[in-house]
Design a protein that fits this description.
By secondary structure, the protein is mainly beta. It has three domains: 142 residues, Glucose Permease (Domain IIA); 109 residues, Immunoglobulin-like (Sandwich); 93 residues, Immunoglobulin-like. The protein is 8% helix and 38% strand. The chain contains two helices and 27 strands. The longest helix has 29 residues.
Length: 407
């Protein structure tokens, strides 16, 4: 009798809870699945189109390759256009990140390093002009610089990728189409017409508007120009159609003469001189002979001044104080260093970057010691970067220190 009573009690409880059980199962069945965020696909750091590899990385199947002794060379690819010079060609961020280093060395000329959101770092040498600021966040496809020949070399873009800003190693990565045997890449970064062209040099290559192919029926123009007040720039514009040698374009009082004709298009060089105050502007681009409106040119006038320190670098590298390199430490070691500036008075800031099972970044500090967050057990490599009040930094290619963290 007692067993029968308990059986009936269990049956009543089961049927009472059955709707709740079903509802819970149904909710789990129809709950939306949140997809994991996909890592950003990298692109080559040049506008969309084909480019030539003038020198490949160490051991590549290119006609010329870099020496294998030093990571800034053995990892690198040198780019030039298929025809013409790469002087003043826009250099684009291959992926999102922030400006980590800018400086000038005798052998590299004006150079730039980006630290990307996935931890990797990309480097650029022999630049003509840099148009981003220290620690600035950049988006994929953003114009960060213009290629050139600084460092007393023939014009080319020297580009490499490393695993992070600490390790002096090459990082293999996939970015669009590449053939070392053919000596070509095909960039799928932003097209010429998709660019926000920031603070361009005074003269741009006139073949640039056609490097990405034709975007549509209208003129090949950047999406927007960003210029400083008082700036002067000659902007190449490609327009489809048949034109006479006497044809010209007009943008307000600025007249763009025809400079090159092809069977299906013509290129005009539009001289601009910015006198307006800061702000956003739109002007009509017309064909002079019949005042036909071809497109709208959008531009922003904004102040920009590159830090004085971009033209140099700090000769002093930090010296290790503690912990001694390759020593064993506790899980939260106190990392210390010193810099000997001699008799100079330098308002220095320091940034310690730690790579290992747990990576950490101190951000910019004024003190010469830093205690990172608790670290997982394992081997760590670290560097300290120095910046003065002008924006000048020490060489980023210094050898890292190391320690082994315990529990």
């Amino acid at each position: 009798m007692g067993n029968l009573f308990h059986l009936r009690l269990y049956q009543r409880l089961f049927f009472a809870l059955l709707p709740l059980i079903c509802a819970s199962s149904l909710a789990q069945a129809v709950a939306p699945t949140v997809a994991a965020a996909q890592p950003e696909v990298w692109h080559w750091p040049l506008p969309a189109g084909e480019w030539q590899i003038s020198r490949g990385p160490c051991g590549a199947e290119t006609l010329f390759d870099h020496d294998c002794a030093y990571y800034e060379n053995k990892c690198a690819i040198d780019f030039v256009p298929l025809t013409g010079s790469i002087e003043n060609v826009p250099v684009l961020a291959p992926a999102a990140g922030e400006v980590f280093f800018v400086g000038t060395r005798a052998e590299t000329g004006l150079m730039l390093i980006l630290q990307h959101t996935d931890g990797r770092a990309s480097g650029y040498m022999h630049l003509n002009k840099i148009v981003v600021l220290p620690d600035e966040k950049v988006k994929q496809g953003q114009v960060i610089a213009y290629a050139g020949s600084s460092g007393n070399v023939r014009p080319h873009l020297h580009f490499w990728v490393q695993p992070n800003v600490v390790e002096r190693e090459c990082e293999n990565f996939t970015a669009d189409k590449l053939s070392y045997r053919d000596g070509r890449i095909t960039s799928q970064n932003l097209t010429w017409s998709g660019l926000t062209l920031s603070y361009p040099p005074e003269v741009l290559p006139d073949w640039l508007p056609t490097v990405s192919g034709w975007p549509g029926t209208g003129p090949a123009l950047p999406t927007r120009l960003v210029l400083t007040r008082g700036a002067r720039v000659v902007l190449p514009v490609a327009v489809k159609g048949a034109f006479d040698a006497t044809d010209a374009l007009a943008l307000g009082s600025f007249i763009a003469p025809l400079t090159r004709r092809a069977p299906e298009f013509a290129i005009f060089n539009l001289p601009l001189a910015v006198a307006q105050p800061e702000g956003d502007y739109v002007s009509a681009l017309t064909l002079s002979r019949n005042n036909q409106r071809l497109a709208s040119v959008r531009y922003t006038v904004r102040a920009f001044s590159a830090p004085v320190g971009y033209a140099s670098f700090l000769a002093q590298n930090p010296e290790l104080v503690s912990p001694l390199s390759w020593s064993s430490t506790k899980a939260r070691p106190r990392l210390c260093w010193r810099v000997d500036f001699g008799k100079q008075t330098v308002k220095a800031h320091y940034r310690a970057v730690l790579i290992g099972p747990t990576s950490a970044d101190s951000g910019w500090l004024t003190q010469t010691c830093w205690t990172p967050p608790a670290l997982a057990s394992g081997t760590y490599y670290w560097k300290v970067f120095v910046r003065d009040e002008t924006g000048a930094m020490n060489r980023p290619n210094q050898r890292p220190w190391a320690f082994v963290a315990g529990k």
